[in-house]
Amino acid sequence: MNRYKITVSYDGTDYAGWQVQLNGFAIQESLEKAIQTLTGAKVKVHGSGRTDQGVHARMQVAHFDLENPFKTSVFKKGLNAILPRDIRILKVEMVDPQFHARRSAVSKEYRYFILNTEIMPPFLRRYRTHIRKKLDVNAMKKAAKYLVGKHDFAAFTANPNRVVDRGTIRNLTRLEVIKRGAEIVIIARGEGFLYKMVRSLAGLLIRVGEGAVPPEDAKIILHSRERTARVPTALPEGLFLWRVDY
Amino acid sequence: MNRYKITVSYDGTDYAGWQVQLNGFAIQESLEKAIQTLTGAKVKVHGSGRTDQGVHARMQVAHFDLENPFKTSVFKKGLNAILPRDIRILKVEMVDPQFHARRSAVSKEYRYFILNTEIMPPFLRRYRTHIRKKLDVNAMKKAAKYLVGKHDFAAFTANPNRVVDRGTIRNLTRLEVIKRGAEIVIIARGEGFLYKMVRSLAGLLIRVGEGAVPPEDAKIILHSRERTARVPTALPEGLFLWRVDY
Known about the structure:
The structure is a homodimer. The radius of gyration of chain A is 19 Å and the shape is globular. The first copy, chain A, is of the alpha+beta class. In chain A, strands 1, 2, 3, 4, 5, 6, 7, 8, 9 and 10 form a ten-stranded mixed β-sheet that branches. Chain A starts with a strand and ends with a strand. Helix content of chain A is 23%, strand content 30%. Chain A folds into two domains: 94 residues, Alpha-Beta Plaits (2-Layer Sandwich), CATH 3.30.70.580; 139 residues, Pseudouridine synthase I, catalytic domain, C-terminal subdomain (Alpha-Beta Plaits, 2-Layer Sandwich), CATH 3.30.70. The interface between A and B is medium-sized, with 19 and 19 residues.
């Protein structure tokens, strides 16, 4: 048995998400089909985690097994020739059968991109969340500081019941807000994230930036451990799975 | 009669081009429909020139007339609310009825973007032409120098007969090749361009960069005034109408 690790980049705009859904195409499904076309083998591709509908990955990592070995360089070229242009294989590596894309990951980084301008240039519309109202970046930075660390993030997940087995405590090692001209980037790093957690964190930070929620309330909301309407889920187009570390 | 000048930005990927074609949607048509929805008036939108299927505009300029005046700020907001997100109105101005988007233009600039990497990131695939083979940028720069100036560009148009009325002589005031990391940008500026002229210039420069045509041959090809297979039309996705000056 040969285990392969692949590093994949994708534009999530036209997909129903990483995993096979009832409607629409999934990234995972496209990869499995391409591998089958190339090798003839029906495989299951395991990602480091799911990304939702419309969410992108600069670098997603996945693994799968093949009975017959396949040259990694040929694999990469072949898969890229078969796959649609919005999914690219950046790297193919043969790894130890102990390697597991999700369980072996030690940390993950997401980046949420906001374009804070009057008009959204058409060329960025798929990759940036457009906020017209001028955001107070300092307030956002202040709120972010309250959220960093090991906490119960139940107030920042779309469906806390989905994760009862592992609980809702996560270690958010980094949550930073950076302004680069008209662009505001939220960098979130941690060992793991709850369902829609990054978009919920971004949602609250945007509300804080808009002046709708005082930065200090981030602490109160966090400690409430209850999801309320004060924490909206930010739009998917601005979100990128940035990197997965092993 | 009130004449309006609009500055428009669009992602040409999903359009049949600027002008109404037999198949597919056109940018011009989308603008005319949006203006009609907003004002109730059936207008004809005149662009500074056409862009082909799949070609983008960072800044295209057009004009149209309305019998009843309309506040420009309301116009901009209203049109952007109606138009699809891949077409944005950057500016609306009331202008002298003598102003003509095509005839009043004194110069136009196009930029052709090449990404010279092994793998094309999915997020750039709509806006960059992907060339895998390492291009010799110095050879491209050298070839470009032969082409600058007032010449008969018959060898660089897809259909010289379409322009018999104005001939095939054009003044190419700037043709520059710039390398920025993995990106190569071809900047073409002139008073006017022939049909598919920029993509033909880019097509030859790419061939030169690939080593398939010696840079000196650019001169010979230009002077031949005959379109041959040595000058391919480069793909549309890398081309942007960059600006129109009046």
